[in-house]
Model the fold of this input.
Amino acid sequence: MAKNEPRDELLNHDFDGIQEYDNQLPGWWKNLFYLTIVFAVIYLLYFHVFSVGDLQKVSYLKDIDPDYVPSPQDQEGAVFDAYRAPVYAASEQRTPFDRAQANAEAYERFEQNMLEAMRNADAAQLARLQEDFPAIFEAYTAQGGRLPAGVAAAEAEAATISEPITDAAILAGAKDLFGQHCATCHGDAGQGGIGPNLTDEYWLHGAKIANVVRVIQKGIPAKGMIAWEKTLSPDEINAMASFVLVELQGSNPPNPKAPEGDKVSE
Ligand code: HEC
Done:
């Protein structure tokens, strides 16, 4: 270093007493920085401009379906296309799953793969698959597939009552729960509202305890009756079903909703 070269010269600015030397940044730091620039260019060309590498969407689709052949629409690799047409434009199907569903053939293949996966899954995976793909899970159970451990246990427990419970304390507890969870739709006294009248002899889904337990557990999602199995325990559901049959049935509350369904006389 030449003798008269200025060293550690203070720059002439000062922010609240903080001053700065005119030192160079260390070489390793700058080299690292240049490396990131080079990397970014390679990355951009590799993934976005020439589409040599699979973006995560296509690589996901290949994971779930080894025979998957990317469509140009899935690739969306060309950098300018991707930015001009946002992936999540409202008119577009949102996820690979939606898109697979839109394409019947692809969906069928997807479903077969998922069914296969369900057959080979352990209980925890099965529970997740059930949550992520309810429709396929239903098809799986319809084929006699086994249930995740927790659900199987809950179903077995729920299925244990064959007669309504008549214990007064349990029915009183169920009455409170009914007020909290069900009255908004079925009325305070079960007389009906958004949901059907639960006090008359007309039933949409059957008047047996097993029918009522099942409706409360699984709901009728398409018609606005919620599935309660995630909110209420099997015991609570048994108690609620018993409450409907033992206390609400035949109670003749004021302002009943018109009957719906078939008359069931016992
Ligand atoms: C968000 C509104 C809503 C809530 C809350 C609700 N239900 Fe329902 N429920 C409905 C609707 C709507 C139906 C009718 C479904 C149909 O048309 O198939 C129904 C149907 C039923 C049936 C079957 C009636 C029949 O005729 O077969 C029973 C039993 C029932 N609900 C019990 C309950 C219980 C117990 C609760 C509380 C844990 C509850 N519901 C909470 C809306 C609701």
User: Anything to note?
Assistant: The pocket of heme C is lined by residues 181-182, 184-186, 194-196, 198, 203-205, 212, 215-216, 220, 223-226, 228, 240, 244, 261 (CB under 6 Å).
